[in-house]
Hints:
Structural class of chain C: mainly alpha
CATH topology of the largest domain in chain A: D-Maltodextrin-Binding Protein, domain 2
Oligomer: heterotrimer
Strand content of chain A: 15-25%
Amino acid sequence: MLRKALSITVLALAAALPVSGTATELRVGFTTDALTLDPGNHRNRDTETIIRNLYDGLLTRNSKMNIVPELAESWKQVDPVTYDFTLRSGVTFHDGSLMTADDVVFTFQRLTLEGALDGKTSPRKDLVGPVKSITKVDDRTVRFTLKEPWPILPAMLPVQEVVSKAFTEKAGPQGLATQANGTGPFKLVEWRKGDTVIMERHDSYYGGATDIPPVGKACVERVIFRVIPENASRVAALLAGEVDIINELPPYDMKKVEANGKTRVMKVNGTRTFFVALNTSKKPFDDLRVRKAANMAVDRALIIDRVLLGTAVPLNGVMSPDAFGFNSDLPAYQFDVAAAKKLLAEAGYPDGVDVTLDAEGPFKDVVGAIAGMLSKAGIRAKVNISETSTLQAKWAPAGEKTGDMMFTSWGNGSLDPSDIFVPTLRTGGRGNRAFYSNKEVDALLDSADVELDQTKRANLYKKAQTIVNGEAPWIFMWLPQDIYGVSKRVSGWEPSADSRINLHDVCVK
Amino acid sequence: MNAAALSVAPEKPTRSPTWESLRRFVADRFSLLAAIVVALFILMAIFAPWLAPHDPDENDLLRRLQPAAWMEGGEWSYLLGCDGLGRDILSRIIYGARVSIAIGVVVVLIATAVGTALGLAAGYMRGWVDILVSRVIDILLGFPYLIFAIALMAMMGPGLENIILALVYKEWVVPARVVRGEVLAAREMEYVEAARAVGAPRLHIMVREILPNILSPVIVVSTIRMAHVIILEASLSFLGLGVQPPTASWGSMVADGRAFILDAWWASTFPGIAILLLVLSINVASQGLRDAFDPKFSD
Amino acid sequence: MNVLALVGRTAQLLPVLLGVSVIVFVMMALTPGDPVEVMLSGQQVPPEQVQAMRHDMGLDRPPLERFAVFLGNALTGDFGLSFFHRRPVTDVIAERLPATIELTLAALLIALAVSIPLGVLAAVHKNRFIDRLAAIGSLFGISLPGFWFGIIMIMIFAVHMQVLPVSGRMDYACEVAPITRLMTIDSLLRGRPDCFSNALSHIILPALTLALPMAAVLTRVQRAAMLEVLRSDYIVFAHAKGISRRRVLWRHALKNALVPTVTVAAMETGSLLGGNMVVETVFGWPGLGRLVVESIFVRNYPLIQAAVLFYAVTYVLLNFVADLLYTMLNPRVRL
């Protein structure tokens, strides 16, 4: 026993000695591993965050979420359905070969043609829009022709990355899944699945988007993504100096990170709108008064303050304040239990009403608080925690619509309303959990979808937001901030609303 | 787990009268103490509403993660501190005993009943019944327990009854194997052959002759399994597949508290201690029970 | 004899595997939720593409046909593509398996290293202090909820004392070219003691957490077996012949008393392999258990099917190994 205890101590000492690292390197503590390294064969934001450091796209976003050219030098919209992209010259892949228009055409055909991935279709197909054809005009120009107008094409292109035609064909159908030959600022060194992705600087990098200084090769020599799913472990790793940046810092640990002296908290408004969907197709939430009462019964400010520790922006509508066409004039439903009770009584529920509040496990805390508040106003909410897939089945738009209310959220990475408004609130939308249907809203959304004049388009959305605010198909909640813990040795990095962690510009001391 | 079952399976029926066994059990001070602790937990579960100082589900965001009473910022009326929603941890532990004990008892009772019946039938009747039961047992043993339970929970959805079902579906295998083995040995015994010789009906032999003689290993195995089942339920709850919130379950309390271990260690430490204490007591008591019923193993 | 036994076991394996596949398949068919919906997480996607995705996953075919296709392909070793990784399921499992195997072996090693000497000592000093200690220790061992114990260990050693890493398998700075894909062994084979100690420092806590219940069980088994051996005639005879007590104990008695321990250890290894998803979750260990649990949540059917089959095969094989060991080590028993 004694010998064992002794050897453990020795071990511990050995572990405390750092394993020799030489190059300047940046380590990211990240919640999940990539599913694959093939940029065209996944549908997962975290996977893309990792891949985006190996691969560049035609366009990208700066940290203010503006679209800027990256591998493209410029682009122009020829007519509502035609876009021309002029490519940068002299861009090389990691293997040294030159990126050409053929590679770009190949990339997007791989994404959009049926069965292009070894007989299967890319799950990212729709993210490129209603493409009719993608063709090479000349060595430096690629033309996208659409079947119908789709004004958000440029806004969606930053989520696609360009692959090498020759490499992909040589590597075979599964080759890109575990190997990478991108044009990005970092090259893949090793992927230890489930554990670590190790990258090193691509020294002949073309420099990256000219609109996002600094331009040139990456500042750090090595980049490591370490997969640490446990929140507490990720924070501990940051505090111990094992990693330099962590994502999804739990609000509760912010104080600790700030107090540490070597680390700090960085926040950015996320793009995910949280709300409680109210089933408008059945009692009691088919009645506008009950829906309004529900909105008045919840003290959002208290929850944001106490549970989220101030890391969320209250919303009165669908969209993020950063999104295109955000309507800042929407009135808030004031927290007022008495008024809520009165409305409930008017709607025929003087003794209150029993309902179920569905939610997923990670939101247990918040939902518990919401249910408590609703109950105090007479909407006695019983919390039902289920898995995502089970809830999706229960709340499917084509399903039996048996639920009462569901705490849920909707991501809007493009910050364009068409990506959140249409799916969640247009009649029959795939994510229309409230089963909300309003002809006027539908019409506004449909015309906005094809409107090319951006001011007019914004106004259409603003009008739709006003209607939805008044009809309260949801209890409007908040837009959480993405919270990162960052070591003070890191400079040149800012969190971005699309939750990407692009490390090209980051330096470490 | 197999080993526990294996090591308690005696080779021949024990004939020691029950009162003699109980006397031995009571004489073993450790086991007696453990049994008393288990009894206290059961009483705590039954009288939870009178014992708990607070409503276990009452949120109070202002008391979020309030430390235990003896720490700075603690309060004696919230002895073990508060969790992430400001709920009293002590009250939740007291109520959580209901879930753990109810599931432990009900799962083991059903599993033992089902398993004993099937094991008895398989062991005594042999033939296709035995082949069928043994095959099903083989197949179920091929599944890792927790994965099987998780998949079943995904299929059936959350809820107390579903946890019980999810565990029973595999748990019955344990008593069934023990009983089958015992019966195989017993059917060659004189008393069984004697009964057969006088033309006693099969059911009579199985239920009246064999069953009473193999009951003590079954009881011993059941109590040991109860400890396992309680840990399994806690593990399921820990993985987020347990009872519905806000209902308190020790496993989910540990899971919830884990998010705060960097500062609020009390949130997951105390419910864990509760699990350990109950399971340990059951194990000690059941070991005492085993020794008492089956002195062959008492060394 | 052993060949025959092996053939017999293999024949037994087939119905078990078939039964396991049927159960998994039925369970999956009855489980609400749709992998395509999970993948799209409700995003607005044109129906044709949803249809194409369902087709790619084979979900547009009736369940029975899907099962037939699965069985047919499985016989040729093709378990299909993981819905989410979109890579062959066998690849995805093979990537995670070494971590699980390494953890399991480490736990097994710890359990044996603790339980054999402890069991022997307890038997020799029956009813004395060390025996009591061993008894109490094993009671704690089987009563500790692994997930909680793991958290407490992290809290003490990784967070407060900061002597062990919080999670993971090996420092990324250790680049050890894979041979066995077990990090500890590979770093030794490649002559990197620094990496070895690093890998060891990562594995020690999860392995310990996993080992405890097994060590508890094995200690009891070892003690019981040793007691039995010590009572047997030949040991009494050896004593009488004047062979030193030490020699009798550690050479003659232990050899025979090891049989049940090793057998039980082989059997328990099966449940260890399938039972470590909790430990993997707590310690962020990149193993198979965590992957399977995640796969159940996202309805990644092909992966679940293949992984469960893998567990069933190892379980049956390990039991076979246990039987084999029992016969080999113990000439009195015949299969």
